Amino acid sequence: MSIKKNILVLTTLCLSMVVSLSLEAQNDTAQTQDYSSDSKSPQALIDAYYDCISGPIGDVRDFERLRHMFHKDARLIYSYWNEDSSKANLMIFDTIDAFIDKLGYLDKKGFYEHEIANITHSFSTVTQVFSTYKYRAEDNSIPKGQGITSYDLFFDGERYWIMSMFWAAENDKYKIPKKYLKN
Fold first, then answer.
1. 82 and 97 both lie in a single domain
2. In terms of residue numbers, what domain contains 10?
3. Mean pLDDT over all residues of the chain?
């Protein structure tokens, strides 16, 4: 082999090693992100959820953070009415990853959701949070609205986990009662 070919092969190998080490370092950083403050209390967990899915157009969501909030056996269920509110339907996500697959629009639309009130009940390892929220899309592709999410949380002695999330948005026929609009 000529000297030029040897230099080219060595340069290619060196660049490959640098890129590989760089990617490995990025993966290590992503895996060591500390999300422990998100799960220290029921309210911290709910606040973290709303924070994680909300943001302006172009703001890529931290789905690793979102995964950290949900127990591996968690289920997410969206209940919605047909157009004339005569028949209710369910969209069920058996895993957090199935739910995340449907969230690709968040950074494209500039989606925001925030809590306006909640009612929390706890006993032992079980906490149920009835959270009233408002939502909007920065690009106005989704009409502004509000809804209620029922979160079932599990405290394992060290942290809280979302075990289930069951939500429905308000519509013309089904308005949120005033008692759920304030703490």
1. yes
2. 1-32
3. 86
pLDDT of 160 reads 98
Are 154 and 126 within 8 A, CB to CB? Answer: yes
Residue-by-residue DSSP string for 70-130: EEEEEEEEEEEE-TTSSSEEEEEESSHHHHHHTTTTHHHHTEEEEEEEEEEEEETTEEEEE
Q: How many domains does the chain have?
A: 2
Q: Which residues contact 30 (CB under 8 A, 6 or more apart)?
A: 64
Beta-bridged to residue 160, according to DSSP, are 155
- Are 94 and 45 in the same domain? yes
Give the three-state DSSP class for 154.
Answer: strand
- Rounded Cα distance between 51 and 62, Å, is 10
pLDDT digits (tens, 9 = 90+) for 109-154: 999 999 999 999 999 999 999 999 999 999 999 999 999 999 999 9
For the chain, how many helices (H) and strands (E)?
5, 6
**Quick check: 163 and 73 in contact, CB under 8 A?**
yes
What single-letter amino acid sits at 144? Answer: K
d(CA 38, CA 47): 8
Same domain, 44 and 108: yes
Residues 103 and 65 in one domain: yes
What confidence score (pLDDT) does residue 88 get?
95
69/144 same-domain check: yes
